[in-house]
TrEMBL record:
UniProt-listed InterPro entries: NAD(P)-bd_dom_sf, Sc_DH/Rdtase_CS, SDR_fam
Family: Belongs to the short-chain dehydrogenases/reductases (SDR) family.
Keywords assigned: Oxidoreductase
Matching Pfam families: adh_short
UniProt xrefs under PANTHER family: PKSB, RETINOL DEHYDROGENASE 10
Protein name: SDR family NAD(P)-dependent oxidoreductase
Source domain of life: Bacteria
Length: 291
């Protein structure tokens, strides 16, 4: 059953820029009662909040928060509940990427940061709000942004890939648990996109028949799936195809198909990423985005 955003509270992480901001703009245009923005970049966050108010937002609540920190998540979630209420719609959009061989990752700035922001943060943020969403007994929605690399192994993206595999498994398990426990009014959607033109994967090349997607297109499709309570959205269609082939082909055959035919294994060969900046919607050590 699809729901309307009108009159509801929407919370978005990684909301200051990129797709996070697009989700926020969409919420305002559709009449959200309040739009709650989480991001580490205070300056960009203030700019986005001001733009949303000019767009006609009923209420905007920006919070500067590092989603890699559990204490900050806990404290800010409590503040959100006091000031805006329990979110009706939660979009776990924040994430970072490291494009290098595994042995080139540093333990803290790379491995810990990717796992904390991409995997643990969506879990902890959802855990902070989910009891209230369950107790309220009104339709609620959660969107967890994963990645196509969470379904297929990709060289020079090992930690990022691991983080997104975990998100997919957790997100879909949560969906099943809510349904099984009689709390199906809270629907969980897992977004599994290939590369998106946000700058996060600057230099990456899409596999065969998988062009880099426009952010607006992905947001439109994800928004539609979220409100409808759809379990999973894979974009574009080749993501589902690749996942299916990976599951049926023997490993040597799949390596040939992925490496020589679809060029999945070469997609990060020319990766540069966005130049470092203090943003929570891009790719510096504390920056976050989608995909």
């Amino acid at each position: 059953m699809s729901i309307s955003v009108a009159g509801r509270v929407v919370l978005i992480t990684g909301a200051a820029m990129g797709m996070g901001r697009l989700y926020a703009e969409r919420a305002v245009r559709e009449g959200a009662a309040a739009v709650v923005l989480w991001d580490l970049n205070a300056e960009a966050l203030a700019d986005t909040a001001a733009a949303l108010r000019e767009l006609g937002a009923a209420a905007v609540h920006p919070y500067t928060v590092d989603v890699a920190s559990l204490p900050e998540i806990t404290d800010t979630a409590a503040q959100v509940i006091r000031e805006a209420g329990v979110p009706d719609i939660l979009i776990n959009n924040a994430g970072i990427v490291r494009g290098k061989y595994f042995w080139e990752h540093t333990p803290a700035a790379d491995i810990d940061a990717v796992m904390q922001i991409n995997t643990l943060a969506p879990m902890q943020i959802t855990r902070a709000f989910l009891p209230g969403m369950i107790e309220r007994r009104t339709p609620a929605r959660i969107l967890n942004v994963a990645s196509a690399s969470g379904t297929l192994s990709v060289p020079k993206m090992s930690v990022y890939t691991a983080s997104k595999w975990a998100v997919i498994g957790w997100s879909d398990s949560l969906r099943l648990e809510l349904n099984e426990s009689g709390n199906g009014h809270v629907c969980v959607t897992t977004l599994i996109p290939s590369y998106i033109k946000t700058g996060m994967f600057e230099g990456a090349r899409g596999p065969l028949l998988t062009p880099l997607m426009e952010p607006e297109y992905v947001v439109d499709k994800a928004w539609e799936a979220l409100l409808a309570g759809k379990a999973r959205l894979q974009l574009p269609w080749t993501v589902a195809l690749g996942s299916a082939l990976r599951n049926v082909l023997p490993q040597p055959a799949w390596d040939v198909v992925a490496g020589r035919v679809f060029k999945v294994y070469q997609s990060m060969d020319h990766f540069t990423g966005r130049k470092p900046a203090a943003s929570t919607d891009e790719t510096a050590p504390k920056e976050t985005t989608q995909a």
